[in-house]
């Protein structure tokens, strides 16, 4: 009988085998085997334990498949596809639709067949590719996305080529310089023998920066999609002709997303690099060219746009240690009018760890990655409040809104002593 491949049937199978396994294990030991440290270190392997082993294997398989289906192919891709598949463009060499032999594939990607089979043998167990018959493979939804989506492929390459080597240096950093708080002292800098930081390396090797830009475009879909920003703030309440400054906005994707829904607003996209042509091209292509302009500005310098309705800082602050975030915010506060809003769009880490929450697990992994790459982090509401107060104590967090399904929150900072939310300053937007 084939294994189920829909969520309901898989959930039923998980429940069935979990009950079988739990009953069998409780006969052996009165303790709660999955939580109590007094439980056995290994599951029994004697012939009498065949039922336990069968149910355990069935439970693991069904729960992994349920997990993979619930995540969807894009999110699973970020955690399971290997650098080798991306580097050698193996996914692109597999026909869509159809199958290909290992022999033909090894010739196309210029890898020895034994090496290729080793890599793909593991990849197949994670849902990347599938064997149709002995010696032949075809695409799965995950591998097909990798073949068709160079942005997500760039995300995998960035992690494997840059984040993983940096992570290997974290222990040494904590041993030698545990109080390091500058990007130039990060684990990344140690891994790449770079006295600056990740962005300094990108300036020296532009191909890395281009890959990172593609990667960020790919990873900011789904739970990090700019559309969450569109519904997460009351843009309609801003005055006709109101100016939104998109600080560190790169090509202006988030400004374009908002402009398409709110034609009464004007947007100024700012970045340290000159993206004026691609920014305008993107805006024109999306039919909002008249609403958007570009300025080459560093957020570490005084902002030339005074008194804007909104200063939008999306996915910037988590790249920087506190002292740099304070400088970014202080520059914006000095440019702002008494009625301006500063909107930080970044993750807000819960004050207490929920070990069962997948979204939180992903969020905390990203926070650790920010620390490895930049000596930065994803912040709690209390930590956000602290950097705001350090920048200018006259400003405070007015509200934190988390759009449904979003990994990022909108942190609304205003020149006010009043708070419209609960004690934590956090609310869910329904």
Describe the structure.
Belongs to the class I-like SAM-binding methyltransferase superfamily. Cation-independent O-methyltransferase family. The chain has 430 residues and is α/β, with parallel strands linked by helices. The chain has helices at residues 7-28, 50-71, 73-80, 83-87, 90-93, 102-109, 113-125, 141-148, 150-167, 170-176, 187-191, 198-204, 206-219, 227-232, 253-259, 276-285, 322-335, 358-374, 381-391, and strands spanning 99-101, 130-133, 136-138, 243-247, 266-271, 292-296, 310-314, 341-346, 348-349, 379-380, 396-402, 409-414, 426-428. The two termini are 43 Å apart.
Strand order, largest beta sheet: 6-5-4-7-8-12-11-13
> Major beta sheet, specifics?
8 strands, mixed
Mean pLDDT: 85
Number of helices: 19
Q: Judging from the principal axes of the Cα atoms, what is the shape?
A: globular
Category from helices, strands and their pairing: alpha/beta
Poorly predicted spans? 33-42, 418-430
* Percentage of residues assigned to helices: 40-55%
| Euclidean distance between termini CA atoms | 43 Å
Number of strands: 13
Computed CA radius of gyration, to the nearest angstrom: 25 Å
Q: Please indicate the percent range of residues in DSSP E strands (runs of 2 or more).
A: 5-15%
InterPro entries: COMT-like, COMT_C, SAM-dependent_MTases_sf, WH-like_DNA-bd_sf, WH_DNA-bd_sf
Family: Belongs to the class I-like SAM-binding methyltransferase superfamily. Cation-independent O-methyltransferase family.
Protein name: O-methyltransferase C-terminal domain-containing protein
GO biological process, one term: secondary metabolite biosynthetic process
